[in-house]
# Entry
Amino acid sequence: MSILVVVGLTLREGIRRRLMLALFGLSLVAVVITAWGYSQLSHLPPTSSGPVSTDDIHIITSLLLILVMFMFSFVLALSAVFAAAPSVAGELESGEALVMLARPVSRASVLLGKWLGLAIVIVTYAVVASLLEFGVAYAATGYWPPHPIQAVAYLAGEGLVLLSLALLLSTRMSAVAAGIVAMLLFGLAWLAGVVGGIGAAFGDATIGQAGTVGHLLLPTDGLWRGAIYAIEPTSVLIAGSAAGPRVAAFPFYAPGPPSFLYLAWCVAWVAGVVALAVFSFARRDV
# Structure
């Protein structure tokens, strides 16, 4: 029961700080702007070989969707990090944590309640923003991603990974330091994935391993690649397969979904990091 109380307090705090209002408000603006952009695709001028085909419009739409979802993933990452970091470190620095910890509530309940509360915000944002974007793309061009549920799940998973990391860091660092370190690691993980793709494209196994290591140490980029695959049309996958290994160097293309073992690793990673955060917070002086 104490965990549910902390969940409610965390959600109310998010509303008070207008976190959810900012997230959904700005995303709605982005959806409206991109809806106009999708509507213009049907008015593209004909090429030398004739009018732009429906397949071409669907391919262009899928590429635009991937770029928009990349923006959403960055917004989600930024929000997860800078909402999670102050929720522990900020309250410890201001002394607010003493008020709650003085009650008969365990530190584990406090941390898990904060994680669950912020996780609800993250998952809700991923679902609403993604489905709105898919909906306007379908209304304007008739294109619907092949695996929309998986795309939303991968995007939400990416946010949960960063939420867990930021909470762990915030038990030992200041809010600002925890946020900066978490975002830096997020950027490095994406960069490692790009470098790994370049290594795979040119047959350099050593460089290619950089992507694999990055996907294991911080699985945000691996989940993002899964979201890309879930949005890509079959025609893009066929063309990518025919293009050979060099297409792996393109950072917004994924030849296949994450394996079941990798997804199991992501779940274990989140559970392990949250457990470490609970352990660290239990031994933190307040």
User: Anything to note?
Assistant: The longest helix spans residues 54-94. The chain is about 80% helix and 0% strand.
